[in-house]
Amino acid sequence: MKCGSLPHYFSIEDIFATQERLPCKFVVPVHRLGFLDPSSESEDIAVGTTVELPYWLAKSLCCQRRNIVTVEMPKIYKEPYREILKADACVVDLHKFGLFFYEFGTYLSQLEHRDSVAIGSVLVQTFKERFRQVMDWAHNSGTDPLIIQRLDSLEKALFQEGYQTRAQLDAWLNKGASQITTAEMVINYKKRKLAVLDDL
């Protein structure tokens, strides 16, 4: 697996997303880190031990320079769940899949794993299918909490942006509905022009 595309240091969303845990299987023995496995009383981690580690640590341990663990994808990104999203992404309560579903999935798609390409594809397809629905909700349903609860963090941000943009547009249209009047400068110009013509 490759090391690269690090999360943005100052992004709260990136920090939360990279804290998500992955099942990792150790392929080499690791000394004095047995405390990482709460079910073990050994001081060391033996080959074959599976431990859930945060993404930022798992990625460091499974890159080409340090092939210490192999990573298993979380169940919400495995084939059965991908098939659900492919069937009809718009009916899925994406918040139940994960608060940072798109962000975490993007990081997983960068790993050299057999499912990485499929995860990347399903993320793009899911976003495309749900984007129009999210914008439709933002423009027509107000701030219904039941709708917002079905969205992950990225979709919530898009929903809020769409809702505010629609509110600003409505305010502008209502303000512009008043009668259009001639500017004072234009009236004065016409008066001056008439005065010049009268002098001729």
Could you give the count of β-strands? Answer: 3
Which whole number gives the mean pLDDT?
A: 84
The description of the largest β-sheet is:
3 strands, antiparallel
Question: Approximately how much beta-strand content do the residues carry?
Answer: 5-15%
| Radius of gyration from CA coordinates | 28 Å
Number of domains: 2
| End-to-end CA span | 88 Å
User: Could you state the order of secondary-structure elements as H and E?
Assistant: HEEHEHHHHHHH
CATH fold node name of the largest domain? Methane Monooxygenase Hydroxylase, Chain G, domain 1
Point out poorly predicted stretches: none
Oligomeric state of the chains present here = single chain
| Main sheet: strand order | 2-1-3
Helix content: 40-55%
CATH architecture of the largest domain: Up-down Bundle
Shape, please?
Answer: elongated
Protein name: DNA replication complex GINS protein PSF3
Main location: nucleus
InterPro entries: GINS_A (IPR021151), GINS_bundle-like_dom_sf (IPR036224), GINS_Psf3 (IPR010492), GINS_Psf3_sf (IPR038437), PSF3_N (IPR055221)
Subcellular location: Nucleus
